[in-house]
Structures are given as C-alpha cells and as structure tokens.
C-alpha cells in the first residue's frame, strides 16, 4: 500500500459518482433499471473508501498525502511572475474519516431510496442527482485548496437545489429549493470575499502554501485585522451551508425534498461541510474570529432548540434539531474544542441520518403523513424502525453508552473549560440549556410518534414495518451510534483511538498576539521575544493550563449533562407519556412565548419584510426609474431634437425662406415700378435723358462744370 | 511561405455569399438558407484553422511584428494635398490575443444565429443578405488595426442591423430600430471626431522618407509619433486628450451598453427577431468593450489610469442596477436583456483593474457572455416561436411538457449564474480576483459581488415561474425541441462546459497579449506624461 495508490483510489472514489451522474442524466431513461448503475458505483466507492480509510489511518497516521496538478497557469504576469492555480487532493485523517462517512451514508440513502422513491416518474433523474451531490460533497472533503473547495461548495449548493426541488410540481418545493440556494449564496458570497483576501495576498489557493506564509508572519495586507476578516468571511460560507443563524432559515424549508435526501444532505453531509470548512481553516483563525464563531454557534443552537420544542411536523423537528446540533459543532470549533467538534460531526452524521431515514420509514408507512398529531402507537407496528429511532434519540440526547454522549460531553466540557479560561460563561450556560431542550424535544418526538395510542386509526391500521432495503440502513446507522466504535471507554473518549490517534487539534499559525491566551505556545520566559513574534510553528496548540482546565471540566460537565438530559427526558415523558402535565394548557399559559417558538421566532417573516421585500421594492423602483427617467431622458432628448427641428422648420419656412421670398418680392416690385418707365416710345426716352442731364449737371456743378 | 489571406477571407466571405444570394430568385428560400448556413459554417471552419495555427507566444497589442495573420497594404493614397500632405488609409488586418477570442465568438455565434433564423418566413432573401452583411461588419471590427477601417466596419454593421430590427421585428419594431440606430450613431459621431483628432495629431514615417498623418492604431499608441502641436498629442501642453477620451468612451459605452446609455438595449432586444437578439447580445455588445481595450486603453493609457476608478464604478453600477432591473421584469426577453447589462458590468470591472487576472477575466467574460446569453435568447426564442408570448407569469410547469428543452434551459441558467464547471464561473472569478487585488477599487469589488447573489435571484425566480410548478394546461399543444433546435443548443453547451472545465484553452490565447497590454499600461503612461512636459 503506497501513498500513490491511496491517492489514485481516492480520485476514483471522487469520480465514480460523477460518472454515475453523467451516465444517468444522458441515458437514464433509455436504460431500464439505470439507478442500479449509480447504486453500484456508490457501493464501489464505499468499498474503496473503507480501503483508503483503513490504509490511511493504519499506515499513514501522521502524514497527509497530497496529489496535485496544474489547472490554470498564467505566465509572465507583470510584477507577479507566474501564476499557477492547482487542483489537488489531500488526504489527512479528517479526509479519510469523512470519505467513509459520506460514501457510507450516501450508499445507504441509495439503498433506502430504492423502495422509498419507487414508482416516481423521474426515478433515474433522482439517482443522477444523488450522484452529482455525492461527487460535490466528496470534492469538498478531498480538496487541498480553497478554490476547489468553493467550486465543490457551489456544486453542493446546486445539487441540493435540484434535490430539494425534486418534486418541482409543488410550489412549496420549488420555493424551498430556490430559498436554499439563495440563502446559501449569501454565505458563499462572503466566503468568496474571504478567498479573494487570501488570493490577493498569497497568490495561491492551496491551503498549505497559504498557511506556510501566514506562519512566517506574512499577514494579509500586513494587518491582523484582515486575517480576522478573512477568517470570518470564509466562516460565512459555513454559516450558509451549516445553516447557522442568521442564515439557518433555508434548512427547515428544505424538508420539502424527499426524505432520504434530507437524511443525506441535511443531516450528514452538506450541512456538515460548514463545520468541515472551519476545521480546514481552523489554524488561521484569530481569537476574535473564533469568538465570533463561538457566539454564532451558541445563538444558533439556542434559537433552533427553542423552535424544535413546539414543531408538529416530524421532519421539521428533526430539521431544527439538526440546526441546533450544527450550532453545537460550530460553537465547539469557536471555543477551540476542535477534536470534539469534528467528533460530534461524525457521530451526529450517523445518528441524524438514522433519525431522518427513520422518519422516512414512518412517513412511508403512514402514506406521506408527516404531522405528529396524527401519529402515535407505531412502536408495535414498526419494531425495527422504532428500535433504531430510539437508539439514535438516546445518542442525540447524550445518554451514556452512545456515541452522542461522548462527543456532546466533549463539547460541553470544551465550552466549560473555555469559559473558565476566558470568562465567557454565557457560552457553557446556553450549551447546557440546549442539552436539556434537546433531550426534551427528541423524546417528545419519539413518544408522539411511537408511543401511546394511535391518533389516526385508519392510517395506523395500514401502517406496516418497512421492507428490508429501508430497514437495513436504519440498523447499520443505529449500530454506529454506539460508543465502542470510537473508543473502549464509555465515559472518556479522549483515550479512544478516534481522538487519541486520528483526530488531533492542529497547531495554530496565527501570530501569538492574535491567539487566545490558552492557545499561545508556551515560550519559556528566557526565550527571546523575537521568536514569539515570528510565530514559531513548533509550538504546541494548547497550553498546559488549557489541558488542565479541560481535564477539570470533564467530569462536572459529564455529570451535569447526564442530569440535564435525564431531566429533559423525564419532562417529555411526564408531558406526553404519563400526561402529568398537559402540554396544551402549558402552551396556553405561555401564550406569546409558545407562539413565538411555534412561528420560528418570526424570522422568515422578518426577512420577507426587510431583505426580500426591500430588494423587490428597490428593483421595481429602479425599473420605473429606468423606464421613465433614464429612458425618459433619451426619449426626451429625441423629442427635444424633434421640437427644435420643428422650430427650425418654421424658422426656415417663415424667416429664411421669407427673406428669400421677400427679396424676390422686392425685386419683383422694383421691376414693376421700373416697368412703368419702359414705355418703348423714343420721345419719352429723350425727355428722360434731357432731364437726367440737367439733374446731373446740377449735382456736379460744385466740381467746376 | 505561401500566404493565404485568411482574415480577409473570413471577413468578406459573407459579402460574397450576400452577392450570390442577391442574384438568386427570392422564391429559392431553401437554397438561400442553405447557402447562408454554408457560409457561416465555413467561417467556423476558418476560425478553427486560425485557432489551430495560432501562435500563443506572440503578444500583439502595440507591436506590429507580433500580430498574427497580418495583411497590410495601402488602401487609399492621395498625395500632394497642400498642407495635408499625403492622405493615406491602410487596409491593415491582424489579430492578437485580444481579438482572437472575439473572432472565434463571432464565427460561432453567426453560425448558431443562422440556424435559429431557419423559421424566418418574411422575405428570406432580404433577411439573409442583410444578415451576411452584418456578419462581415462584425468580423471586420475585430480584425481591423487601422482606425479608419475599424470605423468603416463599425458603421457597416449598423445599417443591416437597422433593417433587420425594423423590418423583421416585433410590434414596436420601428421605434426600437430607429432608437438603436440613432443612439449608436451618436456614439459613432463621437468616435469619428476623436478619430479625426488623432489623425491630425500623429505622423507616421513613410517608406519614401516623408511622413504623413496616420490612422494606424499601432502608430497612434507610440508617443514618438505624435506631433508637437497636434490637438490630441500628449506633447501639446494644451491637448484635449481628456475630453477626447471621454467622447470616445461614450461612443463605446453606448454599445456595451453602460449605464446610463443602456436603454436602447431592452427595446432592441424585445423587438428584434431571435437570431438578431442572439447576434446583438452575443457579438455586438462586445464591440464596445473590445473597442475600449483595443483603442482607448493603449492610445490613452495615462487617462485610462486616471479614470480607472470611474470605469470600475460604472462596472459596479451596471452589475447591480442591471440585476435589480432584471429582477423586476415580467417579460422573459427583457429580463435576459437586463441580465446582459449586468453581465457586461463584470467586463467593465475586470478591465478597470488593469491587472492581468482582471483583464483576462474581462475578455474571457466577453466570450462567455456571448455564448451563454446567446443560449438564453435562443431559449426565449423557442418558447416565443411556439406560443407568441413571453410573459414570465404566463407559463408554469413547462419542465413537465418539454423536458429536453428544460434540460438545456437549466444548463444555460446555471451557466448564467456563474456555476462552477461552466465557463462563466471562471471569468467572473477572474474579474473579481483581479479587481480585488487593486487597492483603490477593492470596496467597489466587494459591493459588486452582490451581483452574484442578485443574478441567482432573478434567474432562479424566472426558472421557477416558467418551468417549475404546476403545468399550465393552456400550453398543451407545446412540443419539445426539434432536431434543428438541438443543433443550436449542443455546440453552445459543449463550449460552455469545455471552457468551464478547461479554461486554459481560452486563457492561453489571451494571456500573452494581456500581459503585454498590462505591461504597456504600467510603463507607458510615464512616457506619455513625461513627453508632455517638453
């Protein structure tokens, strides 16, 4: 097993889904059962990913493998010299793990959809879209430069546009897909500005080359503020894709897409891309940028959790729960708990995909009914779905022995340690509160769906367990939500192979002065100050007192999260299972707060009234301005010219020509006058001559005549 | 080496075709159409030959010896005209990395437009004859290196365009045609004045030892050739170069069209028949920006640098204003027309950066806008041909009835919103990367990125209104694409994807010349202004 082999295989993994897409989009309708081609390609990609993952994590644990090729080369640019844009792939441990996550979930979704989407008129088209989506997502995972990241980023955006709007006959679906794309584009635009900041200063897109230059103290425009700006701008891309506040509004609407699609893109891959992006640029984030990220994550997790409490659509609850959990990951990145953020990304991918596919299984059984108020009592009818759904719910609620417990606890401990070092206690406070709410709304979901008595008897009677192709992915994903895949100690993941061997926090390359105190490399006091200023790269990431704080935070955070999780579950049971507290009465009591949550904080309405309404109003105003003012001036100039020319015409007719005619008239008049003298009689002429001579003599007399 | 005057051939072949068509009886419609298609197809082949034998390492721009496919001989010469001396005009053709992409574009778009004019029924003979004359005019503008010749071709293209809109157009065709004609003519007058001013400001050494006033663009780029007293000479301390620059710029800006001179465009597009819209958006608009790069930039480098910020500003206005106007339109074709205004703004922005990346992006954007917008107008044409309406709200769910059509529509729309893997993405990115790297226009660039967002907004909204949603039963008689329509869309689709995935194919053609231009712009202004102090 050599590096070259692993890299070449990765390239094959990347291109397989693209090949599937191309085949299906061009020939899909002509080949019966063409979706099997795409599914087979995905299976192949999965096998190869397992191979690459195994090879990378076992034999090349400490090194990253890079393969690149020149895409665009501009020679002899004045001043700059040659400019080269490379495309390339880089496999480090993060990539290896993500390859597996993406191909596995994508493959399971392919399998699940065999049954779920059966009979759809655009079946092969659906599989083609899954292919292009998987290709784009793998592009994000594999890239070694930020331009290709952006390219794949946009492609993910457009493939999610196609998938969300797959049932485009429905206005709500095409609205949702448009909204998703546009909201994402807001983030992408910011990300592109971030990329421009980096490119202008470093003349390359390759991550490692950029970081090497930053590490040498070459900051964008020689200013740490621009480094912070670059970090935050690139983070905007993550805000879009990972549905962070204030751009989270697209994700819940995106549930209009087929449910397996939601499992693929809105739980496990696309939305995780934002967190993955932050991980990729983590080393260049300044303290200010990180704090911004932490706060955005915190706000997102809180807002989404409060909304999830009251939603009645099974997929909407899951959607807001996803937003909330993504907020967790982003927040964890912001507080420097890099390992746990990524860990949670992986564990969440599995259990959330399981939850979405589980909800798909339920919706399928209920004949496309998604309203929780019409479900209930499905536990007996759908035991496999129920078991898988329950395990995943336990994981997301952070119950011990699940994967979610390990990763979530790490994040909570991370925020706690961060607060103890920097004094931002708001962050852990909100994080723990969200843990309570998560446990509550997730169990509310389970109880309303599977427990109690059926509220819609007719639909319940027809419900049945889903067939094998739908149940199998659920089982696989729920098994992956148990702790032992990530380490043998169910209470402390940091000793497990996942965190101990595979995922390590990379060393920050930001100048010392721009880092959090706890991330500063510990330079002995004897060392010269110059060395510090140069930003020595051999520094360790976290200072000892961070490790100490993290260690101290671990058990209190764990204890607290178990208590809060248990409390949430208990509350859910007492309200919906044992009916000790009547939720309707509670809602009535809480009145405005309840409606605020139910209506999603009115954020959609707010955006509709401000940004969308504003843009449309402005566009109408400008169109009016264009038609009547700008073009009015043009037409006005034309009319003016015509008016002037008319005047000119009049002038011409009456003045210029008048003069001409007058001259003619005058000469005519003179002619008439003198004609009188032209009598033709000689005597008259003689008389004229004599008179003339006399007059002349008279006139010239003074001259001596 | 046996020399084949390929540029003359590619330029005047359409005129030859026109002459033959004029001799044919008007009833031979099929023959006339076939002949036109054959002529434009030959042009594509010739463009292919040019591309094949193009030397990527020659720069052109201001050095005659590094232009390619040069043809130069005296066209008009009258000597001994008292103080005027010798009046001479050269027939001087040649291409470099700036004009080569435009020649390729013109050939491609003319061919596609021929295919789309297949169902013209009114006086086919007249249409095709005028169309071919137009073709010659366009091609001539891009290959001329003599200002006089350039001007002749520029005007030559105006006349057929007037009749093509005015006779074969929609309900308000007379208004649109006369508006187009007069507006462009105003621009031409400005250009003419500057041309004459330049003529009397520079002298070129003739082989017989005497010197004469010159229209040669390359001579006009060399400050050594200017006389001490010429009205537009940098050596004259009281020169009017600034005023002349503005006048010339307005002449070109009308064609781009740059805000606030753009209002002829929506009218012309809406009234023009589909193939003429395709030509208009695909080729004609590029003449404005091409003229600025070819003539304004290297002849007035010092003023260009002085005004670059304003060019960028107008670029930004075009991008955002055009996009917002497009958002408000209810007519499919008008929306695309305003999107052209927006997309041409990127060209202005990239040009204003005066960097290699930015100008490469600008020229590449000119080419890509040509192919993508041509496709968009073809798309409108397809649906207009069948339904005789263009209201964005009149349709709905066409994707269900016309899946293949929708497939191409989706490609074109995605290309127009700058999706990666398609050509528009590369050029827009280059424009932004180039202009962002210039300190003075960084903020303008940041605001301009709004265009990416707004572009996606109006495009996807239009896509939704026309193609998605419930099928409007009113259009039950609609049929999917015919073979001829396939043939129009496929080449454009291939070009769009090819240049998106392998942009070097185009960038390599331009790069040497663009470098040379940027270098010239960086160094020459010093010369120009230094000479001015003597």
Which secondary structure elements does this structure contain, and how are they paired or packed?
The complex is a heterodimer of chains A (705) and B (534).
Chain A: H1 3-27, H2 35-59, E1 65-77, E2 81-91, H3 93-116, H4 123-142, H5 146-164, H6 171-202, H7 207-215, H8 224-241, H9 250-253, H10 259-268, H11 270-281, H12 287-308, H13 314-334, H14 338-365, H15 383-397, H16 403-422, H17 426-450, H18 457-462, H19 468-479, H20 497-502, H21 529-533, H22 544-577, H23 583-598, H24 603-675, H25 682-700
Helix pairs in contact in A: 1-2, 1-4, 2-3, 2-4, 3-4, 3-10, 3-14, 3-19, 4-5, 5-6, 6-8, 8-11, 8-12, 10-14, 11-13, 11-14, 12-13, 12-17, 13-14, 13-16, 13-17, 14-15, 14-16, 14-19, 15-16, 15-17, 15-19, 16-17, 16-22, 17-22
Chain B: H1 6-23, H2 29-52, E1 68-81, E2 85-95, H3 100-116, H4 124-143, H5 147-156, H6 158-168, H7 173-199, E3 203-205, E4 211-213, H8 217-220, H9 241-255, H10 264-271, H11 274-299, H12 301-328, H13 332-352, H14 356-387, H15 398-401, H16 403-416, H17 423-436, H18 442-448, H19 450-467, H20 483-501, H21 504-532
Describe this protein's structure.
The complex is a heterodimer of chains A (705) and B (534). Chain A has 705 residues and is mostly helical. Chain A contains 25 helices and 2 strands. Chain A has a two-stranded antiparallel sheet with strand order 1-2. In chain A, helix 1 packs antiparallel against helix 2 and helix 12 (287-308) runs parallel beside helix 17. The model of chain A is unreliable at 524-540 (pLDDT under 50). Chain B has 534 residues and is mainly α. Chain B has one domain (6-533). Chain B has a two-stranded antiparallel sheet. Chain B has a two-stranded antiparallel ribbon with strand order 3-4. In chain B, strand 1 (68-81) and strand 2 (85-95) form a beta hairpin. The longest helix of chain B is centred in the C-terminal third of the chain and has 32 residues, at 356-387. The termini of chain B are far apart. Chains A and B meet through strand 1, helix 5, helix 6 and helix 24 of A and helix 7, helix 12, helix 14, helix 17 and helix 19 of B.
């Amino acid at each position: 097993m050599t590096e070259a082999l692993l890299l070449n295989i990765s390239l094959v993994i990347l291109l397989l889904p693209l090949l599937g897409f191309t085949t299906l989009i061009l020939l899909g309708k002509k080949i019966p059962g063409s979706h099997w081609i795409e599914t087979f390609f995905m299976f192949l990609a999965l096998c190869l990913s397992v191979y690459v993952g195994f090879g990378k994590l076992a034999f090349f644990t400490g090194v990253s493998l890079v393969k690149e090729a020149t895409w665009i080369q501009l020679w002899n640019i004045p001043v700059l010299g040659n400019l080269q844009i490379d495309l390339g792939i880089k496999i480090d441990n993060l990539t290896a793990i993500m390859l597996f996550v993406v191909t596995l979930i994508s493959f399971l979704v392919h399998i699940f959809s065999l049954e779920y989407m059966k009979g759809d008129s655009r079946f092969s088209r659906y599989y083609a879209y899954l292919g292009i989506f998987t290709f784009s997502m793998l592009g994000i995972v594999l890239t070694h430069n930020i331009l290709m990241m952006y390219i794949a980023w946009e492609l993910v955006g457009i493939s999610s546009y196609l998938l969300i709007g797959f049932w485009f006959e429905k206005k709500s679906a095409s609205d949702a897909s448009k909204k998703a794309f546009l909201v994402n584009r807001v983030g992408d635009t910011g990300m592109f500005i971030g990329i421009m900041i980096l490119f202008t200063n470093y003349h390359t897109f390759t991550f490692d080359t950029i970081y090497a230059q930053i590490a040498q103290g070459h900051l964008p425009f020689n200013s740490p503020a621009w480094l912070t700006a670059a970090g935050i701008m690139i983070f905007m891309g993550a805000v879009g894709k990972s549905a962070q506040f204030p751009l989270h509004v697209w994700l819940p609407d995106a549930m209009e897409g087929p449910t397996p699609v939601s499992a693929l893109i809105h739980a496990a891959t696309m939305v995780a891309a934002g967190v993955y992006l932050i991980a990729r640029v983590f080393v260049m984030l300044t303290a200010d940028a990180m704090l911004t990220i932490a706060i955005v994550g915190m706000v997102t997790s809180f807002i989404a959790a409060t909304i999830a409490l009251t939603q009645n659509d099974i997929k909407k609850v899951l959607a807001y729960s996803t937003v909330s959990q993504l907020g967790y990951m982003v927040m964890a990145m912001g507080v420097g708990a890099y390992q746990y953020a990524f860990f949670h990304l992986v564990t969440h991918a599995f259990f959330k995909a399981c939850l979405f596919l589980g909800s798909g299984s339920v919706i399928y059984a209920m004949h496309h009914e998604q309203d929780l108020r019409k479900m209930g009592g499905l536990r007996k009818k759908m035991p496999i779905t129920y078991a898988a759904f329950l395990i995943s719910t336990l994981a997301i609620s952070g119950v011990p022995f699940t994967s979610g417990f390990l990763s979530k606890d790490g994040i909570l401990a991370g925020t706690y340690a961060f607060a103890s070092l920097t004094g931002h206690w708001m962050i852990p406070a909100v994080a723990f509160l969200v843990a309570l709410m998560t446990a509550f709304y997730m169990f509310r979901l389970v109880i309303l769906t599977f427990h109690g008595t059926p509220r819609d008897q007719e639909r319940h009677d027809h419900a049945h367990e889903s067939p094998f192709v739908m149940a199998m992915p659920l089982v696989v994903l729920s098994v992956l939500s148990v702790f032992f895949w990530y380490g043998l100690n169910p209470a402390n993941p940091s000793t497990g192979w996942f965190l101990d061997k595979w995922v390590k926090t990379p060393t920050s390359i930001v100048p010392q002065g721009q880092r959090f105190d706890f991330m500063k490399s510990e330079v002995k006091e004897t060392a010269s100050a110059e060395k510090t200023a140069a930003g020595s790269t051999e520094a360790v990431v976290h200072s000892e007192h961070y490790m100490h704080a993290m260690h101290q935070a671990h058990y209190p955070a764990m204890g607290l999260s178990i208590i809060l999780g248990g409390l949430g579950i208990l509350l859910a049971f007492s309200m919906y299972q044992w009916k000790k507290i009547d939720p309707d009465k509670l809602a009535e009591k809480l009145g405005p707060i309840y409606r605020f949550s139910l209506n999603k904080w009115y954020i959609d309405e707010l955006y509709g009234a401000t940004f969308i309404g504003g843009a449309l109003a402005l566009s109408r105003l400008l169109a009016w301005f264009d038609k009547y003012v700008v073009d009015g001036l043009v037409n006005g100039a034309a009319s003016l010219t015509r008016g002037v020319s008319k005047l000119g015409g009049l002038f011409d007719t009456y003045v210029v020509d008048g003069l001409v005619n007058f001259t003619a008239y005058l000469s005519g008049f003179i002619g008439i006058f003198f004609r009188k003298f032209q009598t033709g009689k000689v005597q008259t002429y003689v008389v004229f001559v004599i008179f003339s001579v006399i007059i002349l003599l008279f006139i010239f007399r003074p001259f001596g005549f | 080496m046996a020399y084949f005057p390929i540029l003359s051939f590619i330029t005047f072949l359409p005129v030859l075709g026109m002459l033959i068509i004029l001799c044919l009886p008007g009833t031979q419609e099929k023959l006339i159409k076939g002949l036109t298609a054959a002529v434009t197809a030959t042009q594509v082949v010739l463009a292919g030959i040019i591309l094949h034998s193009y030397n990527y390492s020659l720069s052109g721009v201001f050095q005659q010896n590094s232009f390619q496919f040069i043809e130069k001989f005296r066209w008009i010469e009258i000597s001994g005209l008292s103080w005027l001396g010798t009046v001479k005009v050269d027939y001087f053709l040649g291409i470099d990395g700036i004009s080569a992409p435009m020649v390729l574009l013109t050939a491609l778009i003319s061919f596609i437009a021929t295919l789309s004019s297949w169902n013209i029924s009114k006086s086919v003979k007249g249409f095709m004859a005028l169309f071919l004359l137009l073709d010659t005019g366009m091609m001539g503008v891009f290959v001329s290196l003599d200002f006089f010749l350039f001007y002749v071709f520029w005007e030559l293209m105006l006349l057929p365009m007037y009749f093509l809109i005015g006779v074969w157009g929609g309900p308000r065709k007379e208004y649109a045609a006369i508006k187009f004609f007069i507006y462009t003519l105003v621009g031409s007058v400005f250009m003419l004045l500057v041309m004459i001013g330049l003529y009397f400001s520079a002298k070129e050494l003739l082989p017989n030892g005497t010197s004469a006033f010159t229209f040669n663009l390359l001579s006009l780029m060399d400050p050594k050739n200017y006389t001490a007293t010429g009205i537009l000479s940098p050596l004259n301390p009281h020169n009017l170069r600034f005023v002349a620059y503005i006048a010339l710029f307005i002449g070109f800006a009308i064609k781009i069209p740059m805000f606030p001179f753009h209002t002829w465009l929506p009218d012309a597009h809406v009234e023009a028949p589909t193939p003429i819209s395709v030509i208009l958006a695909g080729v004609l608009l590029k003449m404005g920006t091409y003229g600025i790069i070819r003539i304004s930039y290297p002849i007035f480098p010092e003023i260009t640098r002085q005004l670059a910020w304003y060019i960028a500003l107008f670029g930004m206005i075009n991008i955002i204003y055009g996009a917002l106007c497009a958002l408000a339109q209810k007519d499919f074709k008008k929306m695309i027309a305003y999107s052209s205004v927006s997309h041409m703004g990127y060209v202005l922005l990239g040009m204003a950066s005066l960097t290699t990346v930015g100008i490469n992006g600008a020229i590449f954007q000119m080419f890509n806008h040509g192919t993508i917008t041509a496709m968009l107008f073809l798309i409108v044409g397809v649906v207009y041909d069948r339904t005789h309406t263009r209201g964005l709200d009149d349709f709905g769910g066409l994707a269900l009835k016309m899946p293949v059509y929708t497939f191409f529509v989706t490609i074109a729309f995605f290309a127009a919103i700058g999706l990666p893997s398609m050509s528009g993405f590369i050029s827009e990115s280059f424009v932004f990367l180039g202009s962002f790297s210039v300190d003075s226009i960084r903020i303008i660039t940041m605001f301009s990125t709004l265009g990416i967002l707004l572009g996606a907004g109006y495009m996807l909204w239009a896509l939704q209104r026309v193609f998605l949603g419930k099928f409007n039963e009113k259009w039950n008689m609609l049929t999917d694409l015919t073979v001829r329509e396939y043939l129009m869309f496929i080449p454009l689709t291939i070009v769009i994807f090819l240049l998106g995935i392998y942009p070097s194919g185009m960038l390599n053609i331009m790069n040497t010349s663009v470098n040379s231009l940027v270098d010239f712009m960086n160094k020459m202004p010093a010369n120009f202004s230094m000479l001015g102090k003597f």
